[in-house]
Design a protein that fits this description.
311 residues, alpha/beta, 7-stranded mixed sheet, two-stranded antiparallel sheet, 9 strands, 46% helix, 16% strand, cell membrane, transmembrane, acyltransferase, acyltransferase activity, LipA_acyltrans
Length: 311
């Protein structure tokens, strides 16, 4: 028997007492999504400052990543960047609420999408296209916006909280024609063979089994390798997706990654990491620095950098 999706599960499962706090949080998130954009940004900035002051673990992860990636920055400059990152991430929470509960058209006037024609050029080849990108703080809102321009099938990861999964699936199905859980390789191939675009975020550490080790800011890190194999087996065009928040709105852009795949998975991973680095340069505070990007060590005997307790 096929496993039930979150949306098909019994309503009794979702109204159990253990989920009441999540539903309360969803109700608050729904109300906050109706606040004007400028107020959301102001509240996000304030909450980001508060989170930075109160956080310990996430702040430690952020500072560790910044020390690894920007060793030439002074301690004071890294501190400023870390604070700006927390503010950006908090603004991203409000953007996530907007993505979940508001029609994408409500934000459309704030969005500029450059080079969207490259998708149509890729689709004319008849082999689909693989859109790859990184995790920046506006990922949810910009994700709903890209769907206004192109028919893209995003790849997602299930959350542990079933109510959160329900809300997120409901949002995705309202915006995208199809969504695919990241382990469902059969559906990924089906979309590409159907000459569709699929969208992956390729900058998180999924462990040794799913990765090759490639440099990211000069340090070897576990980088997913199946994009290389997927491109080789399908002949799909690879497009690099960049997006971010500006002073007045959001900018999205796409560019073809020429010469990919190279036939060498490490070289392919290195290329994608280098393109992500270039994206980070334009908006460093918006990147997910509080994610443990260097969690898996190439040498199993090396300690994790995130076990350090003091800066």
């Amino acid at each position: 028997m096929a496993k039930k999706t979150t949306l098909n599960q019994s309503i009794k499962h979702f109204i159990a007492p253990q989920h009441w706090p999540t539903w309360l949080g969803m109700g608050i998130a729904y109300l906050l999504s109706f606040l004007p954009w400028t107020i959301q940004k102001a509240l996000g900035t304030g909450l980001g400052k508060l989170h930075y002051a109160l956080s310990s673990r996430r702040k430690e992860i952020c500072h560790t990543n910044l020390q690894i990636c920007f060793p030439d920055l002074s301690a004071n400059d890294r501190e400023k960047l870390a604070k700006a990152h927390f503010e950006s991430m908090a603004i991203g929470v409000f953007e996530m609420f907007t993505a979940w509960f508001r029609n994408p058209e409500k934000t459309a006037q704030k969005v500029t999408f450059n080079d969207q024609d490259v998708v149509q050029k890729a689709i004319t080849k008849g082999k689909g296209c693989i859109i790859v990108g990184a995790h920046f703080s506006s990922i949810d809102l910009c994700g709903t916006q890209i769907a206004r321009f192109i028919d893209v099938h995003p790849i997602y990861k299930l959350q542990r909280n079933p109510v959160m999964n329900w809300v997120m699936e409901r949002q995705r199905q309202a915006v995208f024609s199809k969504t695919i859980e990241r382990k469902n390789t059969k559906e990924i191939f089906r979309s590409l063979k159907g000459n569709k675009a699929v969208w992956f975020a390729v900058d998180q550490d999924y462990g040794r089994k799913s990765s090759v080790f490639a440099p990211f800011y000069g340090r070897e890190c576990a980088t997913i390798s199946h994009i290389s194999r997927l491109a080789k087996s399908t002949g799909s065009t690879i497009l690099m997706y960049d997006y971010g928040r500006t002073k007045d709105g959001y900018v999205l852009s796409l560019q073809e990654v020429k010469g990919y795949p190279t036939g060498d998975e490490v070289a392919d991973a290195t290329l994608l990491n280098s393109l992500i680095e270039k994206q980070i340069e334009t908006k460093p505070e918006q990147y997910f620095w509080s994610h443990r990007r260097f969690k898996t060590q190439k040498n199993r005997q090396d300690p994790s950098p995130y076990k350090i307790k003091k800066r």
